[in-house]
Amino acid sequence: MTSPPKTAPYPLTWLYAPGDRPGVVAGALTSGADIVIVDLEDAVAPDRKDYARAATIDLLCEPRHPVPVHVRVNALDTPPGVRDLAALAALPGLAALRLPKVTSAEQIIHLAQTTPPCAPGTTPLHALLESALGIERAHAIASAHPTLQGISLGEADLRTDLGVRGDAGLDWSRSRVIVAARAAGLPPPSQSIHPDIRDLEGLAASCAHGRTLGFLGRAAIHPRQLPVIEQAYLPTEAELEHAETIIKAATTDQGAQALQDGTFIDAAVVAAARRTLSLARRT
Q1: What is the value of pTM for the model shown?
Q2: Among 188, 217, 235, 270, which one is most buried in terms of CB atoms within 10 A?
Q3: Beta-bridge mates of residue 36
Q4: Ramachandran assignment for 101, one of left (phi > 0), alpha (psi -120 to 50 degrees), beta (any other)
């Protein structure tokens, strides 16, 4: 019997795999990524869309995989996107649909109301914001419907839409999406991909910056990026020790309000400490 997928309360690594390459998808499922995203959009040439969809249907007919499988469908207003949704939404092996180029809450509402149910409940949705309009409407999209379980950026398209040259030019949009997700009660967004799979130092530096902004985890396009992402987002030994000290102090009979280093202990500090410890115990 196939073992059930591992679950991570705070997934840190999301690995894209092209839907028209079943061997690559199979490898991704055992790569150590927390979630595998089968890509039917950018990673698949136009003349391979039908084959990619058929291969993904075969994969998702199996209800159990080593890790959850998401599928990034084609743009919702295109014929391939319409066919993707009709073919995939009710398959038992689908953990979530990732929707590219979302620009309005109405798109989410319409899709949530028309997508076939996927037992138990309905198919979870994840919106990718890839344009200035999507960023402007980030909170409306994030709070559009209960079946929407996450939002994140598609930075390649957004960079083009905004005419951004340097990486720092995206920081306002990144923060906007992080705030919108949290305001809507969604998990912290994961970072967009780092496109140069050879530049692991640059990836690590970018992850460190993303962590300071409030991202949690990152999408990858190659398995070699996974350890770098995980290392960047896992708490350090010092952070773990600090979190344990906070939890211990918060549960003492004396109800200590401050640590020796001056850290004031309130409900928000305790919640952050618990999340830090949860990240360390995620596997």
Answers
A1: 0.88
A2: 217
A3: 15, 69
A4: left
Encode the chain in three state secondary structure.
CCCCCCCCCCCCEEEEEECCCHHHHHHHHCCCCCEEEEECCCCCCHHHHHHHHHHHHHHHCCCCCCCCEEEECCCCCCHHHHHHHHHHCCCCCCCEEEECCCCCHHHHHHHHHHCCECCCCECCEEEEECCHHHHHCHHHHHCCCCCEEEEEECHHHHHHHHCCCCHHHHHHHHHHHHHHHHHCCCCCCCECCCCCCCCHHHHHHHHHHHHHHCCCCEEECCHHHHHHHHHHHCCCHHHHHHHHHHHHHHCCCCCCCECCCCCECCHHHHHHHHHHHHHHCCC
Tokens of 178: 């992080």
> Could you report the per-residue pLDDT of 17-32, keeping only the tens digit for each?
999 999 999 999 999 9
Both tokens of 171, joined, read: 């920081």
Given a contact cutoff of 8 angstroms between Cβ atoms, the answer to whether 283 and 34 are in contact is no
Q: Tell me the two tokens of residue 88.
A: 């995939």
* Domains recognised in the chain with CATH numbers: 13-233 (3.20.20.60), 237-280 (no CATH)
> What pLDDT, in 10s, does the model give residues 181-212?
999 999 999 999 999 999 999 999 999 999 99
